[in-house]
Design brief:
Blueprint: H1 3-26, H2 33-39, H3 44-50, H4 54-59, H5 65-74, H6 82-95, H7 100-110, H8 112-116, H9 121-136, H10 141-162, H11 169-193
Helix pairs in contact: 1-2, 5-6, 5-9, 6-10, 6-11, 9-10, 10-11
């Protein structure tokens, strides 16, 4: 990473941390972009160089997150069952959100605007996973691969939805592992039978 890139990353994180602190202290709706910019010692224009909106501060992934999950995909061993790869990536990506996810959850619980906001950050992960799956499983196997991706994402969504407000992050991760294990049982059966009944 060049010096310029390091400075941009540091600025992104400084603005993000400042905004999230203000959101928690004052509430999302009560905090203005001008307040965030002033507290982060940047201009309003600089804020918009890094974030498209206040909602983006909450939902955008850290700039290095994408590099992290791409590295996880590249590190998968040839021949590893696709579901095992997806489960590993989902667990690793979510583990990296230990500090951020509980805060995001608290903010969404207090803010109707955030609760309605689209979490577009998850779309980049979905896109990268789908691209990787299609490269690994061309042709007829692609449908089964995309099905596994959708199931992995659904498992993560189910774990999040069932995560109680009074539970810590470890409880969420335990739910995620359980949901992935349950969802993966069917794919394990298909693999062991060396057949693809979905495509028949």
């Amino acid at each position: 990473m060049s010096l310029r890139e390091r400075k941009k990353l540091a600025a992104w994180r400084a603005i993000s941390e400042t905004a999230l602190r203000l959101f928690e202290e004052q509430g999302f709706e009560a905090t203005t972009i001008e307040q965030i910019a002033a507290a982060a010692n940047v201009s309003r224009a600089t804020f918009f160089n890094y974030f498209a909106s206040k909602e983006a501060v909450v939902f955008d992934q850290d700039p290095e997150a994408r590099d992290h999950w791409r590295a996880l995909l590249e590190a998968r061993k040839p021949g590893e069952p696709l579901w095992d790869s997806l489960a590993t990536v989902m667990i690793e990506v979510n583990t990296g959100l230990r500090d951020r996810m509980p805060l995001m959850r608290r903010l969404k619980a207090k803010s109707p605007a955030l609760a309605r906001a689209s979490q577009a950050s998850g779309e980049q992960l979905r896109t990268d996973l789908q691209t990787w799956i299609l490269a690994q499983n061309p042709g007829e196997d692609a449908m089964t691969g995309i099905l596994q991706l959708n199931m992995a994402l659904a498992a993560a969504g189910t774990a999040y939805q069932s995560w109680k407000m009074d539970e810590g992050f470890d409880a969420y991760m335990e739910r995620l592992r359980t949901c992935l294990a349950v969802a993966g049982t069917g794919f394990a059966a298909v693999t062991s039978a060396d057949s693809h009944p979905i495509a028949e």
